[in-house]
């Protein structure tokens, strides 16, 4: 007598279905989320500010002297011409923000994480008006910087006052 062996074709059990969904989650969805996160980080902008003997605004300038950025953006100050530096002015930066103090002829790169205004200058040429302003997000310290701009020496006062008019609330 012949015996037939039937191979049972079974439908997936509940555990298998759950397992498949789990694999889908770990193999597809988590990497997708990670990529989206990475894309968010990569979206941070990088700006370049040149230090010049002469620019569109006249002699001894940062160009652009006013910059609007977002938290996490990076700014590089490039010593295109010699004998300049970039350094924050006293306390004229947002609370909790890191000051910077570049040496003469030094290329400085800063990542700005705190919202507010960052006022900076070139030490040897500040009185000639070589100052700059960066707005990161909302101008949280606008009052302080506006009040302090009055105390700046020489042409620095005029230029900083002009830069402050470009701040948007
Ligand atoms: Cu300078």
UniProtKB/TrEMBL annotation:
Subcellular location: Periplasm
GO cellular component, one term: periplasmic space
One GO MF term: electron transfer activity
Coiled coil: none
InterPro entries membership: Amicyanin/Pseudoazurin, BlueCu_1, BlueCu_1_BS, Copper_blue_Plastocyanin, Cupredoxin, Pseudoazurin
Textual note on the cofactor: Binds 1 copper ion per subunit.
Necessary cofactors: Cu cation
Domain annotation Blue (type 1) copper: ranges: 50-136
Binding site for Cu cation: 84, 122, 125, 130
Annotated transmembrane regions: none
CDD domains, sorted: Pseudoazurin
Keywords: Copper, Electron transport, Metal-binding, Periplasm, Transport
Protein name in the entry: Pseudoazurin
Source organism per UniProt: Silicimonas algicola
Taxonomic lineage: Bacteria, Pseudomonadati, Pseudomonadota, Alphaproteobacteria, Rhodobacterales
């Amino acid at each position: 007598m012949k015996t037939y062996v039937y191979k049972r074709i079974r439908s997936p059990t509940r555990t298998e279905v759950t397992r498949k969904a789990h694999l889908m989650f770990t193999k597809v969805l988590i990497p997708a989320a990670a990529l989206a996160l990475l894309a968010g980080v990569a979206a941070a902008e990088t700006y370049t500010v040149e230090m010049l003997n002469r620019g569109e605004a006249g002699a001894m300038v940062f160009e652009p002297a006013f910059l609007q950025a977002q938290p996490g953006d990076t700014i590089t100050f490039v010593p295109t011409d010699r004998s300049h530096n970039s350094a924050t002015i006293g306390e004229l930066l947002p609370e909790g923000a890191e000051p910077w103090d570049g040496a003469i002829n030094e290329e400085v790169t800063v990542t700005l994480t705190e919202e507010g205004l960052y006022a900076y200058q070139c030490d040897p040429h500040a009185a000639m008006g070589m100052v700059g302003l960066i707005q990161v997000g909302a101008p949280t310290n606008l009052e302080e910087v506006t009040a302090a701009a009055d105390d700046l020496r020489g042409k620095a006062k005029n230029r900083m006052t002009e830069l402050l008019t470009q701040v948007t609330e």
